[in-house]
Amino acid sequence: MKWITQAIGSHLKQLGAILALPFLDKKGASLSQRIARWSLHFVCVVGIVLGLAYLNIKLHLDALLLTPIPAMRQYWLPAVFLQVYALSWIAWWMFRLSSSQQPAAAYPAIFRAWNRALASLENAQIDPTNTPLFLVIGKPQGGTANFLNAGQVERAIACTSPDSEMPVQIYAGREAIYVCCEETSLLGRQADLIAQSQQETNIGSLSALRGRTAVRPTEPVCPAEFEATGSEGLSIAAVGADPVESSRTPPALPNGSLPQGAGPSLLEMQQPLPAGSQDRMQALTTLQTHLDLLGDPAPADGPTNATSASPSPTYQPALKQRLRLLQDAQEIQETNAQLKYLCSLIKQARYPYCPINGIVTLIPLAATETSAVANHAGMLIEYDLQAITDSLQIRAPRVAVICDIQNEEGGLDVLDRFPEQQRHRRLGVKFPCVPSCNASDMDRMISDGIKWLCQRMVPPLINRLFQTERSNGTSQDAASSCNRRLYHFMYSIHQRSGNLERLIRRAFLGNQQPGELLRGCYLAATGRDTVSEQGFAAGIVSQLMDMQNDVQWTDEALLHDRDCRRWSILGYVSVSMVACIAILLILL
C-alpha cells in the first residue's frame, strides 16, 4: 500500500511541475523551448478538465449537488478546477505587479543610498516623477560636486553615502535631480585609475623633463627677431617637452622657425581684437603669423604626432595602469550589474514616466593623452551607455564634457584672462537633433565638429588672450611666461583633436549606439576653487534643461507595451464573456 501512495505522490509532483511551467518560465529560454512548455501545459490542463468531467459523470455528482442551476451539476468538478486555475493566474499577476524586479539585498549600499535620497526628496517636497532627472557617469579629478558647483546647480539636498565607498551621489533641487554614478560606472572607475596614474607619473616627471633634449625652456619657438622686439613685441619661449609624449610641444628648427605645413591657418579664423594700442596690435599680428605654423609636424626620420609617439619609460607603468580596467572582465561585469541595479531603482521610482531625461558623461582631459587611452575610455563609455539603455529601455540625449582643463599647463591662465561673464557660457560644439533619415551623416558631423572645436575654435580664443606688458601693467617676463603657458595650452588642445575624436566616435558611435543622441561636446574647468579653477560649465547645465524632453522609448519598450495592451484587451474580453455566460445560466 505504501508504494501505491508514493507512486501517486510522484505523479502528482510531476503534474504540478508541468502546470507550473509558465510561472517558472525564464527570459533566457529560446522561442522553441517556450512553445514546448506552453504546449505541454495546455495539454495537461485540457486533460485535467476532461478527466474531471469523466469523474463528475462516473460518480453521479449531479444527483448529489444541490445548485440553483441544473446545468452546472454535470460540469461541477471542471468548473471548480477552472476557477482555481484562473485565481492562480490572477494571484501570480498581482504578485508580479506588487513585487520588485530586483532584490533589495543585491547591492545594499546602493539600495540604502537611493532610499535615503527618496526620503530626503520627500522631506524637501520634491517629486521625483515630475522633476527632470539626469544620470551623470564618470567624474572629474575632484569629484562630481565640482562640476555641479561650476555649473551653478541649485542643490536643495545632497545625498551621499556616509561610508568611504560612496557608490551613489544624488543632488537635487527644484529644477532637476542629478544621480551621479562615480563608483557604479566604468568611466568613473577609469577616472580613478587615470588620477592615480597621474600621481605616479608626476613623481618621475621632473627627472624625465631634465633628461629631454628635444626642446629646452631657453630655446625660442618663435624666430629670434620676434623675441628681440622688446617692449613692442612678445617673447614666447617653448616650455619643456611633456614626459608623456615628445610631440606635445612643437620642436624648433635650427634657424628658430617652425616646420612648414604644421596645421590650420589661424588667419582664416582670426576674430576682431579689442581696441588697444598700435604696438599690441602689431605684436599680436606678428604672433599670429607664427602661430599659423602650428600643427602635426612629421619629419622625415619618423612620426612625432601624439597618436604614434611611443611613451617614455617613465610613463609606461602608468599607461599599463590606465589600460587595466578593460582587461578585467569580472570587474566590468560587476560594475555593469551595479549600474543596471541603480537604473532599475530609478525606473521604479519614476514609473510610469520616463526614467531619465538625459545622460552627462564627465570625461577627464587626461583620457585623451594617447590614442590607446582614448580608445580604452571610449569602449568603457560604450559599455556604460549600453547598460543604461538595456535597463531603462529609453533613448535619452547625451552630452560629453571634457573636464579638468584647468590641470593642463596654461589652463589657469585661460580662466584668469577670460572675462568673468564669458566663463559662464559653453566652450564647445553643439550637435543638432538629427532625424533618423540623416543618421548616416552623424559620423562625419561629429568628426568635423571635434576638429572645429580643437583646431578652429580654441586657437582664436586663446590668441585673443595674449598680452604685452603694456596692456595690463605687468613686467615683460611675467607677460612672456603667461603667454608661453597659453601657447602650450592651445597647442595641447590642438594635438588632442585626433584622440578626442577617436574617443567620441568609439563611445557614441559604437556598436548599436544611436549617434544622433549626442547633443554636444564641451570643455569645462572643474577644479575646487570656484573663482580661479571653474568655468564654462553653467552653459552646459542650461542646455540640459533645454533638451530634457528629447527622449524616446526603445523598440523593445514599445514592443513590450504592445504586448501589455494586447493582453489587457484579451483579459477584458474574457471577463466580459464569462460575465455574459453567467448571466445566461442564471436566467435559464
TrEMBL record:
Comp. bias (Polar residues): 304-315
Region (Disordered), start-end ranges: 242-271, 293-315
**A Pfam short name:** IcmF-related_N
* InterPro entries hit by this protein: TssM1_N
Q: Which UniProt keywords apply?
A: Membrane, Transmembrane, Transmembrane helix
Q: Where are the transmembrane segments?
A: 35-55, 75-95, 569-587
What is the official name of this protein in its record? Type VI secretion system component TssM1 N-terminal domain-containing protein
Q: Which organism is it from?
A: Aureliella helgolandensis
Lineage here is: Bacteria, Pseudomonadati, Planctomycetota, Planctomycetia, Pirellulales
